Amino acid sequence: MGAAGAPTLVTLPDGAGHPLDGWSMTHQPDDIDPTAARTMEEFAGCLRRVRARADNISYRRLEQWGTRNNSPLPRSTVVDVLAGRRLPRKTLLLAFLQACGVNPRTEPRWVTTWNRLSEQHAAKPPAAAGSATSRTATNVMAADQVIADARARAGQIIAEAVAIRAAAEQNAALLRSAAQRQVDEMHAQAERELRRHHRFAAELAADVRAAGLLRIGANYLNGLDWDRLFADVHELDIFVAYGQTWRNLNIRQLHKLARQRGSSIRIFLPDVNDEATTSLLANRFAIAPEELIRRIESTRESYEGMRYPDGARIELYYFPGDRMFSFYRLDDTVVVGFYSHSRNRFPSIPVFVGTAPGSLYEFILEELRAIEQKGRLLTSHIDGILPSDE
C-alpha cells in the first residue's frame, strides 16, 4: 500500500513515539470472543489473550502509548484489570484494545460485554463490614507481644555484648596480632586477584575490539535505540522469520528509508513453497504451518507496499532452510538476535550489536553472500520502476 492510501487509525507507536500507519495492524484477534465471559475474571482472561496476540506488549509501552494518545493506561491499573481484580473503566478498555491492535468500532462485542458486566457489578450489594474492630484489637495485642519479645531479646543481646567486650579486652593483644596477619594475607590475595582481573579485562577488551562489538543486550525490540541505528542509513538487509513486531515498531523509519533515492532494502524471508522450511519453523514457533505462511506473506506484502517513485531499491528473497538467528545490517552496523528452541516464551534473548571492522560484522557479510546465492529473488524495485510478473 502506498503512503497516500494509508489509513488514519493509530495503534502501536514506533520507538520514537510517532504514530504508525494503519497498515501496521497485521491482524485482528477475531478468534477471541468476549461475549462468552460471564464474570470479571473471565473478561480479564479475554483481555490477557488480546495482549498475548499483540506479542505481549509490555506494561511500560502500554503506559507510553496511553500518554501519547491522551488515553491513560496506568501500569498498576492495567495489572489489576488483567489479573481480574477490577473491571476497567470503559475509556481504559477502549484505549487498551486500540493499543493492542483491536478497533472497538469494528469489534463492538467488547463494549457490549463491558456494559453487561458493569451492570452486574453495580447491582452487587456491598460486602458486609465484618469484625474489623475485633481484628484490630487482635492485631494490637499481637503487636504488643512482638514489642515485649523484642525488648527481652534486646536485654539478652546487651548482656552478651558486655561479656564479649570483657573477653575482648583480656585478649586484645592476641586478637590484634591475629587480625594483622589476616589483613596482610587478604591484602596479598587482593593484589593477586587485581592483577588477574587486569589481565582478564585486557584480554576481554581486545576480544571486544576484534569482534567490533558495540553492545550486548537482552531485548532487541525495546532495549536498542533503533532511531539512532537508522540515522543516515542507506543500506538495510533484513533476515528474519517474519519479524512483524519489529517492522511495526520501526515502520516510520522504514518508510523514510524507502523514500530515499539511491538507498537499498533487502528482505530475506523463509520460502513459503518449501514444506520442510515451513514445517520446521512452524514447529519452533508452536503455530500451524498455515499461520506461519500467512505471517510471512503479510510481511512480504508490507515491504512490497513500501515502493515509492524515485525511492530506494527494494528486493525480496525467499530462502529455504532453518534459521538459528535473525539479523539486521544497517550500513556498517549489524544487530544479531538468537532464536529460542524452547516453546516457552522468554522475556529476554541475547542480542549483539557490532560494527565494521570486526569479526561479527564480517561473519554477517559472509552469511549474506551465502543466503543471497541460495535464496530466490521474488521482486526488485529500482528508482520507482517495478519489475514485470514472473
Report the structural category. Answer: alpha+beta
CA-CA gap between termini: 21 Å
Largest sheet: spatial strand order: 1-7-6-5-2-3-4-8
User: What's the CATH C level of the largest domain?
Assistant: Alpha Beta
The count of strands amounts to 8
Largest sheet properties: 8 strands, mixed
Q: What is the succession of H and E elements?
A: HHHHHHHEHEHHEHHEEEEHE
Domain unit count? 4
Identify the CATH architecture of the largest domain.
Answer: 2-Layer Sandwich
Please, how many helices?
A: 13
Helix content: 40-55%
Q: CATH H level of the largest domain: which superfamily? A: Endonuclease Chain A
Low-confidence parts: 1-29, 382-390
Strand content: 5-15%
Mean pLDDT level:
84
Notes on the structure:
By secondary structure, this protein is of the alpha+beta class. The protein has 4 domains: 121 residues, no CATH class; 31 residues; 41 residues; 156 residues, 2-Layer Sandwich (Endonuclease, Chain A). Helix content is 51%, strand content 12%. The protein contains 13 helices and 8 strands. An 8-stranded mixed sheet has the order 1-7-6-5-2-3-4-8, with helices on both faces. Strand 5 and strand 6 form a beta hairpin. Helix 11 crosses helix 12. The radius of gyration is 30 Å and the shape is flat. It starts with 39 loop residues before the first helix and ends in a 9-residue tail after the last strand.
